Amino acid sequence: MKLRILVALALVCALAPVTRAAADITDPYEVLDRYYEAMGGLDRVKAEQTRHFEATLSVAGLEGTIHHWEVSPDRSRSEVDLVVFTQTTGDNGKVAWEVDMNGKLRIEQDPNVLARREVGRRLALFEHLDRASDIFTVSLEGTEQVEGANCYVIRVASAADDVERVWYIDVSDLLLRKSIDIQLDIQQHAIHSDYRDVNGVIHAFRQDVEMLPLGQKQVIVTTLLETNVDIDPALFEPPSEDARDFVFTEGGDRAEVPCRYIERHIFLPVIVDYDRSLWVLDSGASASVIDRDYAESLGLELSGELKGQGAGNTVDVAFTTLPPFSVQGIEFEEQQVAVIEFVDLFRRVSDLEVVGILGYDFLSRFVTRVDYANNMLTFYDPETFEYEGDGTVLDAPLKENLFTVAATVDGVHTGRWMLDLGAGGMTFHAPYAKAHDLESRDGVYGVGFGAGGRIHHHLSRYETVEFGGYTIERPCISMAGAGGEMAGAFSGGELVGNLGNTLFRHFVLYLDYKNQQVVVEKGDDFETEFPWDRSGLQLWRPDKVCKVLYVSPGTPAEEAGFQENDLVLTINGIDTARFGGLLEFRAMLREEPGTEYVFEVERDGRREELKLVLRDLL
């Protein structure tokens, strides 16, 4: 799950009335020239070298404040305080940084963000006004109504960061009514109003912002704006100390924690208030998460209702303070965590009672060694850790707290992928899959689940995947959004896709958040060929009984006559209640080709016998 509050902090300068008729202006640069002229003159606007503002912020039922400082063109600091959620971002002109709600410092290394940062610097130097600019293309795309006002549509595109900025300028008085920033993964739509003069330059004191596709809305109302004030340069520097909210209970600088690798996910026990429960380890979660019912059982107070990106769709997110908790050999102080509904998801598809997700707020404290074959996690203190093996060290810049790494499929599909320990398999993101027509490949349709709901996918066999200097033969990779539109984390366009545990189970991984690196070693299962489903039949337990969740077209399950929602009563004459549950059923459906099962199912009050014969599907 990806979670972040995206706050629009642009200080937008408005325009004073002018008398020239709208029909007389057809050149976009002339519109911009008059835009700045009306603001008080370009020289006066450029003379605003420093700014400090304070504002109130309302977002998803939370009320808070923003404090912001900037020195043109490239130094800034913003502090967002929503009580249960705090976030501080800064830029000292050399590095951009962020401190999250649990005090963890992250230095920005995501190349897409760094590209946008450089373009922002050049915008602050007004290079978009240069008709000969090597990175900006400015166009006037007619007029459009914005809240009853007819506006010029000025589009400022940048080849350097693949972002388009669209400004809607009122044709009658040249006030900026609306702005849109269009990125591959997200759009920021802002309505600007309440214009006031500050030292001869007019600024918008209110912004009504919506982030798409999240649908997150926020209202920012400026209460104080000062320009050309003295600002201490130290304000823009990252903190000298990082969060240290854990201890190794046995002393030393590491802890070994046995885990369970079950159905392509990593689970380990966590103790909260003497309650020992199963949690999943997930580097694809940008925050640690607990289930809503579990939070209420602990008597925790919830605040806010934000939008986060689950794997399948957007998801409602609240926040709470998790009391001190522990895993074997490690004790944590209290942390702010996200709260969503997901416990039923694991129970219905795996019979497992999972109440929490250990994401970035946990993993970022350590260098984490994941040994899949031996079901062992080792958590190292990053201040003393030194890698001494012969594995491959990969640069893995964090994208909103999530590792991204290079990988190549079939020598063709190459680029940055998310490294996601919470993903069962490898998945091409929907935009990439659509652009390369991957659904036309031979494969098997199916459904999966993630935070946000059901995900339809299409699974195909490929020749190779190259990762960390190693090659895995004949990988199976799915594509998100099969057969329809896709929302959620798999709908982003900046990455090729997600790398998950069907790839990583061949390796031993080291996740180094401090240095934003990943180390890859061959694991004991490097040469192992793991079996895949040979039935096309997916079972689940939406209530207390086992039912058919999905029947893949053209597979033995469809040929046997299974239908969705069939109630499964017996297998080979044995009552399903006597089996080990859904995990055992899945293992049975991966047995050798030619294996036969006779299912007794109930459909519309009638009992039927269905013969299922397994065969290779991929």
Please give a handful of descriptors for the protein shown:
618 residues, 4 domains, single chain, 46% strand, 46 strands, 13-stranded antiparallel beta sheet, mainly beta, disordered N terminus, eleven-stranded mixed beta sheet, globular, Cathepsin D, subunit A, domain 1, outer membrane lipoprotein receptor (LolB), chain A
3D architecture notes:
There is one protein chain. With 618 residues, the protein is mainly beta. It has 4 domains: 211 residues, outer membrane lipoprotein receptor (LolB), chain A, CATH 2.50.20; 126 residues, Acid Proteases (Cathepsin D, subunit A, domain 1); 143 residues, Beta Barrel (Cathepsin D, subunit A, domain 1), CATH 2.40.70; 77 residues, Pdz3 Domain (Roll), CATH 2.30.42.10. Helices cover 11% and strands 46% of the residues. It has 10 helices and 46 strands. The strands form 6 sheets. The chain has a 13-stranded antiparallel beta sheet, covered by helices on one side. Strand 45 and strand 46 form a beta hairpin. The longest helix is centred in the first third of the chain and has 14 residues. The N terminus is likely disordered.
Summarize the structure.
This protein has 618 residues and is mainly β. The chain has 4 domains: 22-232, outer membrane lipoprotein receptor (LolB), chain A (Clam); 246-371, Cathepsin D, subunit A, domain 1, CATH 2.40.70.10; 380-522, Acid Proteases (Cathepsin D, subunit A, domain 1, Beta Barrel); 537-613, PDZ domain (Pdz3 Domain, Roll).
